[in-house]
Amino acid sequence: VVTVEQVRGRPVSADQLTGPSAAHDALFGLEWQPIPAPATVPTTASWDELTDASPVPDMVVLAGRPGRTVEDVHAETARVLGVLQRWLADDRFAAATLVVATRGAVALPGEDVTDLAGAAVGGLVRAAEMEHPGRFVLVDHDGPVPAVATSEPQVVLRAGTYHAPRLIRLPVPAPVPAEASATTGSLDGGDGTPGGRGEGARRFGAGTVLLTGATGALGRLIARHLVVAHGVRSLVLTSRRGPAAPGAAELRDELAALGARAAIVACDVSDRGAVADLLAGLPTEHPLTAVFHLAGVLDDAIVPALTPQRMSAVLRPKVDAALHLHELTAQLDLAAFVLFSSGTGVIGGAAQGNYAAANAFLDALAAHRRAAGLPGQSLAWGLWAGGMAGALADADLRRMNRKGVNALTDELGLELFDLATAADAALVLPMRLDVAALAQAGAELPPVFGNLVRVRRLARAASGAATGELAHRLAGLDATERAKVLVDVVRAQVAAVLGYPSMDAVRPDRAFQELGFDSLSAVELRNLLGAATGARLPATLVFDYPTARAVAGHLDEVLAGVTAPAPAAPGAAGTPLDDPIAIVGMACRYPGGVQSPEELWRLLADGRDAIGAFPVDRGWDLGVYDPEPGKPGKTYTRHGGFLYDAGEFDPGFFGISPREATGMDPQQRLLLESSWEALERAGIDPSSLQGSPTGVFAGVMYHDYAGDSSGSVISGRVSYTLGLRGPALTVDTACSSSLVALHLAAQALRSGECTLALAGGVTVMATPETLVYFSGQRGLSPDGRCKSFADGADGTGWAEGVGMLVLERLSDARRNGHRVLAVVAGSAINQDGASNGFSAPNGPSQQRVIRQALVN
């Protein structure tokens, strides 16, 4: 309720009636505002003193290690990254909060930033907070390491008073007409100064301006603008490639035509020696008067996927270079030292922990320079269409737009550049924010926007009401109705994350991977579902439950307080170690057109020949054949047992995009198809196994497909696609791989690691390299046929195929009503001795099992 006691009118000028430009709504600063002290003090422990056996309190405090050098920054960010990753990976900490405490990493008015390493850590932690809300708190303090119970993700504690960061709109400086002419060809600005005249000369000095990262799209734009709008007449433009960069010569010529002298120099500014040489080589007649540091790279990844190497790769061109420039120009009379930073360092950026750390460092360095009486300003840019945003995918741009961040055009960006560099502030955030879109975030809106969008208390209440409403909707529903409601909740959130117009575009059983999910959108969905349901969900939600229906099933369990039963321990009741293993399903494809176990039996019973010529649809150079043995790069056989339809695959059936299918090893495709068919032949609906403790054990020995040479992922591909939660192992023991896989599957079933298992193997020769290799050893049969135990034996023949068995404990098979095709009474490994990679692998026990299975 607002009571208005008085209204006053003020005169309005004609200029005001024309309305401000878009730049007036896109210039922000950061203010640390006092907030109430926490009412409670949680139980705490120090991270350094915590052991594996220690109870986990409400809060665990990680104390920072202050530093100012390049080495300090790299070491401290790597150390804290390791702690963040351990914190997220260990379920012991799921209900606790990690407090990352720094000292002197933030400067309030009148203070200096003394912990530059801690400032970089702050950027990393803010990114982690964006990915995992509620798991971390960042505290900069001036006394003992504090324990903080606050809903704010970041606070500064000074003399017992708490402060929280808030974006504020900066007053727009009065415009100063640009007096430089784009057509002048003189090296002075008409007033006798060599660096231009008027506003440009006053702001950036009258000498040489140095730009790093200058041959990129944004660097070229700023260089032209400095010349055209600010009268700069002497520039040194650096990048790693320098004159060899695309468009460098054209840029130099263009600036010369505008009346400026521009030297383009190759320089790795992360190398201190290279920077020193660069500065020593500047023209003495035009001393350095301004530095613009634009260099930077991206290597985006969510926090669990970052490594110290990926962290350092992004830190070097920003952190190392800025420190070198800062230290090596400290004695020069500079008019400006401008660092191009990013709003991710202030606000945080999911999947940009390394980039946020690097930019937070730049912001702190600018404040540190100001405190030392040196010029320093950090421009923490929002999304700029002409900058690094040019490398973003459309999905990433749409995601940022939905979150209230819009891209700057070049025209608006340059206008903001002029206004920001005229502002008397160490940190300026030029960015286009969509306040209405920010308000849509409700309770998920970061508190830093609290001054711009005053809806947080109402949003929190609405969020709680929404969670309560969901619980109310679910109460009293039967299992089928609950499942439908939860599936629709998940589909709606998936549509919101991916920018679909409605949930109708999200089929319940369509794989998230096919829908276009990546690691960042997976985290975003987890956060939205957590807010909608009030449940704490794992970061791996999308990968553990790969469809909307699977996620809904998991939510149903979580909301009902039901957890999946833990696997039975070996020898536990109900899982006797001597329980025989039953084969309840089979599927296969073999040479000779065999598509089923029945066809395999007919092939054997009829004694048909399955050996044929090389396939012609794999891109093989058929000139690889030469009848003379021993020729390098040649094979003296042109026959084998081939699956001529190995390239055929219906990716849509499995929810796999055509592009991804192209990169999949054909062995993966065949194993997927055979696994599905084997389950159906066992009378099991494959989709019914989602979330079940079903294991996958695959024998694979070929890894020569160019699209995806990693054979180890084959078993995981089946588990992921079918949504299985049991063990997934890929076995490569050469020719015995499938038998070893069968042996391990039987062991896993007996020990209770899984209740159902898919076991088998697959072989597809994507290239003729194996044939070439064995030709060199004189180990091949020239006609591609084995003649074991015969006088005419002349080498081995190579063939392809896939076979999958569905295995179950015999007691379970009988209880589930599954037809038993055969029983493996003992170990699946040859009980007469170890399998030899070059001899028939089947001992009597295996021969009996296979013969009985084929007869059944």
Description:
- There is one protein chain.
- Helices cover 36% and strands 15% of the residues.
- It is built from 27 helices and 24 strands.
- Mean pLDDT is 85; it is low at 177-198, 456-465, 562-574 and 827-856.
- The chain has a 14-stranded mixed β-sheet with strand order 2-3-4-5-6-7-1-15-13-12-11-8-9-10, sandwiched between helices. Strands 21-20-22-23-17-24 form a six-stranded mixed β-sheet, with helices on both faces.
- α8 (308-328) packs parallel to α10.
- By secondary structure, it is of the alpha/beta class.
Topology summary:
Blueprint: H1 14-17, E1 27-35, E2 44-46, E3 59-63, H2 70-89, E4 97-102, H3 116-131, E5 136-140, E6 154-158, E7 161-169, H4 198-204, E8 208-212, H5 217-230, E9 234-239, H6 248-257, E10 261-266, H7 272-280, E11 288-293, H8 308-328, E12 336-342, H9 344-347, H10 353-371, E13 377-381, H11 394-402, E14 405-406, H12 410-422, E15 427-430, E16 432-433, H13 435-440, H14 456-474, H15 479-498, H16 512-515, H17 519-533, H18 541-544, H19 548-559, E17 581-589, H20 597-606, E18 612-613, E19 639-640, H21 658-663, H22 666-681, E20 694-700, H23 714-722, E21 728-731, H24 737-751, E22 756-763, H25 769-776, E23 801-809, H26 810-816, E24 822-824, H27 844-855
Parallel strand pairs: 2-3, 3-4, 4-5, 5-6, 8-9, 8-11, 9-10, 11-12, 12-13, 13-15, 20-21, 20-22
Antiparallel strand pairs: 1-7, 1-15, 6-7, 14-16, 17-23, 17-24, 18-19, 22-23
Helix pairs in contact: 2-3, 2-8, 3-10, 7-8, 8-10, 15-17, 15-19, 22-23
